[in-house]
Amino acid sequence: MSSEQKILSTDGIPLEESLKQAEKKNKIKAFLLVTPLLLFLIITYIIPIADMFSRSIDDKMVTNMLPKTYKAMEQWDGKELPPEEVFKAFYLDYKILVENKTAGKLQTQLNYEKNGFKSVLKKLARKQKKFEEGNYKEQIMKVHKRWRNVDYWRAIKRRAPAYTYSKYLKGVDMYSNEDGKIVQVAEDRRIHRILWSRTLEVAFFVTLFCFLMAYPIAHLLATLPMKYSNLLMICVLLPFWTSLLVRTASWMILLQQQGLVNDFFVWIGLVTDDNRPEMMYNKTGTYVAMTQILLPFMVLPLYSVMKTISPSLMRAGKSLGATPGVAFFKIYFPLTIPGIGAGCLLVFILAIGYYITPALVGGASGTLISNQIAYHMKSTLDWSFASAMGLMLLTGVLVIYWIYNKLVGVDNIKLG
Amino acid sequence: MALPKYTEPHYRIWHYFYLFVCACVFFFLIAPLFVIFPLSFNAEEFLVFTDGMKRLDPDAFSTRWYKDMVYGTKNPWGLAAKNSFIIAIFATIGSIILGTLAALGLSSRHMPYKGLIMATLISPMIVPLIISGVAIFFFMAKVGLAATHLGIILAHIILGTPFVVITVTATLSGFDHSITRAASSLGSNPFNTFMKITLPLILPGVISGGLFAFVTSFDEVVVVLFLAGLDNTTIPVQMWTGLREQLSPTILAVATCLIVLSILILVTAELLRRRSERLRGINR
């Protein structure tokens, strides 16, 4: 057969080509099935998350309020007082803001840059109505002597860029100072770093506690005969299916000062009746409640891995002379490592973003980074800072998710 | 788990210690749920076991908090329950349709970029809820769907689809594709093949994914807290508000109802799982 003679399918098209076409058709068909969900998620979820990024670095507010000033400032090198044009441009910009009654926002924003700017600007707002045309530099400097200080003009210039990474610096308790250097905030005001480390600490210990508690019971469930293990499995699955708020509520009842846990401690004589410890509204409450709530997420992956380990392996080890301890650590434990990895990463990821339970039982010393994000979304309305913190948290989670994907594979997640 | 007779004493002790630890962990898991039940029948307004309750005095128990939950004048539970069910049902339907279609595409061996697409579709389950809440809130506010039922339903579809995708893909992993080809070769069109052959076989997976989506929506509070207005309050939001302000026995009555609901869901899910395993020929 010469190379030009190709095998033809019944309709006269070369077989290779018609196979390729069929393959392509199947590919398109498969892709079309996924498209609705993929498009839906991209529009309503992926793009909004990406949008959080542009929101977190957005700093156009001041830039848009002082357009003429920033244009005039382009030539100014910031070493000495700016020239007359800058003063004139600033006067014109500020006049519009005062007339539109939006000067307050500018005052607040510039006060962040330079303490005491607010009063200077307020005074200017009152006095500038009487300004005469021409020589604005003299007139403005007459209103307040601080206008002669070049630092204030530098503060304005620092807000010129439309984008800023200052919210990210704030998230790790740093800021760029008047000389443009990145420095740490005063030691007593480093709240965010405490929150980050506390979040990691809580997530780590909750994962550890979950692992220590889940391992024996997953082993028991995997080795018991079916009829007993099915019954015990309900103890794991019922909390799993029960509302998070219901479980949190039950811990609030148990851990309160007159609650059953304290009653028990008094009864066994651990503490005296009038000296009941506070177990809620602190870190203890967060630890206890989160461990119980996340425990099923550790048990289920461990169980599904342990179920596949044949008991004859351990028997073989023992018959070859291993003590039960050695057989366990040399044979059984290494085989369960995939389950341990899956469970620990799952619990860690869930714990690091926990919000509801810490907010209810955590009090002031038990709140996590999520609570801070919610606080800025709802109370201070500093949405760009909330977005920045959210993205910092998200980056951490995605790194863990990536590791999880490498180790376990997302398509291996099993539910129940 | 009886030990063989020849077991040495210190292994025997170790074994009983192990059983004791397991018993403690099971107790830790399940006991908190059963505290709520008796306290919700408390005749007093306190959230502690009164002396009467400890003596099992019938006068110490009453159903007043259940009556308060249903008939209470200023109680928002009726509206909240209605909203919760409407939102959860529509979110479940949406999740099932989108998720099942996507799972069918994903389990085709012709699917390009499978890993990347799977990771994208699962991401709402992995991303912390607070971040999902912030992002979805920004989106819904932009398109004018904040504080509407539709906005919350769409948000819950986002959060619910990963569960449907996972369960249906798992069911499809044991699916014999030659039977759909057989149906096609016998002259059935693709829609008929899906309805008569594929769907009945993957139904357990679809329903259990739907159950996950339902529970996710029914129990979800973080995203709703960002999105809901006064008219869209749901049971979890009401519980959240109640727990933050004052823990009242009425909340425990609601919680008891929710536990009963979760028992029903658990039983359904368990029956489905067994049926699915039987259909797929998995024997244990």
Molecular structure report:
The complex is a heterodimer of chains A (416) and B (284). Chain A has 416 residues and is an all-alpha fold. Chain A has helices spanning 15-57, 60-65, 67-73, 84-99, 103-113, 117-127, 136-143, 150-158, 166-171, 191-223, 226-241, 244-255, 260-267, 283-306, 311-319, 324-352, 356-361, 369-378, 383-407, and strands at residues 174-176, 182-184. Chain A is flat and about 100 Å long. Chain B folds into two domains: 9-65, no CATH class; 79-245, MetI-like (MetI-like fold, Orthogonal Bundle). Chain B has helices at 9-39, 51-54, 64-71, 77-106, 114-126, 129-142, 149-173, 178-185, 190-219, 222-227, 235-245, 249-279. In chain B, helix 4 packs across helix 9, helix 5 (114-126) crosses helix 7 (149-173) and helix 8 (178-185) packs across helix 9 (190-219). The relative contact order of chain B is 0.12. At the A-B interface, helix 1, helix 10, helix 11, helix 12 and helix 14 of A face helix 1, helix 4, helix 5, helix 6 and helix 7 of B.
Instruction: Kindly provide the radius of gyration of chain A, computed on alpha-carbon positions and rounded to a whole number of angstroms.
Output: 32 Å
The secondary-structure class of chain A comes to mainly alpha
Largest sheet of chain B: none
Shape, principal axes of CA atoms of chain B: globular
Classified in CATH, the superfamily of the largest domain in chain B is: MetI-like
Distance between the termini of chain B: 18 Å
Roughly how much helix do the residues of chain A carry, as a percent range? 55-70%
Number of DSSP-assigned strands of chain A: 2
Give the class-level CATH name of the largest domain in chain A.
Answer: Mainly Alpha
The CATH homologous superfamily of the largest domain in chain A is termed: MetI-like
Give the proportion of residues in helices of chain B.
over 70%
The biggest chain-chain interface is: A-B, 91 and 91 residues
